[in-house]
Amino acid sequence: MAVLDELNVDTTPLATGNFSRIFAAVTTTTSPPTPRAVKFVDATTEAALDHMLNEVSILAAVAHPNVITILAHGYHGNEYYVAVMPRVGQENATLFDAIVAWQTRCAWSLTVVEGHQKKYLRQLLEAVCYLHSVGVSHRDLKPDNVLLDARGRVTLIDFGFALKDADPSKPAKQWRRIGTIHYVAPDVIRDVGYLGAQADMWSLGVILYTMLTGHPAFPNDLTTVMDYHKQIGEAQKRGRSAVDTICSFYNVQPPSGVEKDLVDKLLSFEPSARITAAAALQHPWLIPPAPMAYRSLVAAQHSETITFRSLSCAAAPATDDDLTDDDDEADEAELEKHGWRRIAGPMMPPLERRNACADLSAPLSVAAAAAAEVEVG
User: To the nearest 10°, the Cα dihedral for 307, 152, 335, 112?
Assistant: First the structure.
């Protein structure tokens, strides 16, 4: 296991918080050096340290290809550090970055991004399914906590709010109202007690809705969010889709395919009726896996032509040869077999597109200062 002395840590942080700093680092004992990230928190601040130690204890107990890997941790002077892989930085973006990029770089089209949506969600569900099977609930699932590398591989990060049940077969009801307002489940906000796994599935539904529509499902205002949740619950009792209800709040065109059914199953107001991660992985929208595809975008005033470079199927790993531009026509022919097509379409004005996703990155309404821990209410 790597130790801090075996890492060359940059002097300029990638990100800073009230009581934490994240630095890029590389190993000094491997050839070539391997990228890492190191997070330091103020060990003299009890809440910040507790937050970090909770994350360390959870990550030390789990291991999954789509969950961030902890490499080393310990005290360093008056700080506590954690070294992880992969690192946040130039090599990785977040799912939030991807959603904003889709909105700001191309005409929003389900045809364009469907393969990406399926690929990202499937990996997320595989990670969450594993976590739930070992009794871990994340409790802060959101696009900002999902890393994407250059090949579209997903890594779930930030387990500071996570909780592990002593007996995975007997999850305990939780009462602490923790989460990010845009993604938190109604049963968490209503202070009626909740199961972390069920709350996670609601958050995944909000993430999928955002990927499908390009719009946030809920604003950054607790009172409004609670009202919207109530309307969704009342509408579901009358047999109306959660997706249709949310889209009516913003006059957004709802998705109409089988993916809408999956969002509705995730966004059930009644927690016990929400689909589980294991069942969601078997949903028709996710079977068979979508083709992996990369696209190049050529902008011309207010329209763009979209071309694809096929990577055959999601089950096949990408290689350097897959990422070349030597035969676009053959690539497009292969993609057409999977229902993909080249399109050109009008773009939304840039300012409107940025505003459409602005709430996703807005500051949280209530935060515990030391650990950036949010308790809703």
Answer: -60
